[in-house]
């Protein structure tokens, strides 16, 4: 490597102390025989712009410092370029880092970027929005919108918002069109997973892999309150597919027909979009810097 750009979201996660991470980067990388630059994002979507500029400027690696939303933006900016994506996890849930076995200890993650193993991985796309971890159009999209408007960060507030929105959510009838079959469902949860875990061990697609060219379509039909509470531990132990109301299909593409426009989320970031959702996988869209080959999600 000759040039590395670190893109930092200054309002990430719970502690929000970007200066500490900047100091760690500078202390660790000051003796490296390469050019490096540290840039802060200033608004939503800025990470995409900065990553594109870094790639055009010849950066060998562009490092996202923040949560899944920051990784999403930086990753989008690198699609179609030769620049490698690096990650220093600093979010609330850190789903992407957990899935890809990137150290959650930020100092360890910084050190690991010096001698990385490079692996290709897939990107997902739902209409015009990209995702690398999990996207959704059910109650998870509603939760994402509600949490985005909350001033409190962290996994516990997210969980509390999720419980509240789950019991307020009214499912709608959907047509779910895949290449080999079409389903009629009124799901509570409708998720599209490129990786198994949302974050903090909340696993929606236990068999999802980041480099298989497939999206896992996860459909949870209405479930009574008692069974939902009893089944909740399976969500955090990687056994959600054992719940009878949960269906998971692996496919290259799926089209969702809704009655009207509505909310979705991509890697936890909320959006509003059209009634029809086209979800597809872009194989081998990005190259990721990971610590060691043996620790990857897929082999």
List the helices and strands and how they pair.
Elements lengths: L2 E6 L9 H12 L5 E6 L5 H11 L4 E6 L1 H11 L5 E6 L5 H5 L6 H7 L4 E10 L2 E3 L2 E3 L2 H10 L6 H14 L5 E5 L2 E5 L3 E5 L3 E3 L2 E2 L11 E6 L4 H12 L9 E6 L1 E5 L4 E5 L2 E5 L2 E15 L9
Helix pairs in contact: 1-5, 2-3, 6-7
Q: Mean pLDDT, as a whole number?
A: 90
User: What spatial form do the alpha-carbon principal axes imply?
Assistant: globular
Radius of gyration: 19 Å
Low-pLDDT stretches: 294-299
Classify the fold: give the CATH topology of the largest domain. Answer: Tumour Suppressor Smad4
CA distance, first residue to last residue: 26 Å
Strand order of the largest sheet: 6-5-18-15-8-9
- Report the order of strands and helices: EHEHEHEHHEEEHHEEEEEEHEEEEE
CATH class of the largest domain: Mainly Beta
- Helical proportion, percent range: 25-40%
Tally of individual helices? 8
Assigned CATH architecture of the largest domain: Sandwich
**Biggest pleated-sheet summary:** 6 strands, antiparallel
Q: In total, how many beta strands?
A: 18
Structural class: alpha+beta
Walkthrough of the structure:
The protein is α+β, with helices and mostly antiparallel strands and 299 residues long. The chain has two domains: 3-115, Probable inorganic polyphosphate/atp-NAD kinase, domain 1 (Rossmann fold, 3-Layer(aba) Sandwich); 129-283, Tumour Suppressor Smad4, CATH 2.60.200. Helices cover 27% and strands 34% of the residues. The strands form four sheets. The chain has a six-stranded antiparallel beta sheet with strand order 6-5-18-15-8-9, covered by helices on one side. Strands 14-13-10-7-16-17 form a six-stranded antiparallel beta sheet. A four-stranded parallel beta sheet has the order 2-1-3-4, with helices on both faces. A hairpin with a 2-residue loop joins β8 (174-178) and β9.
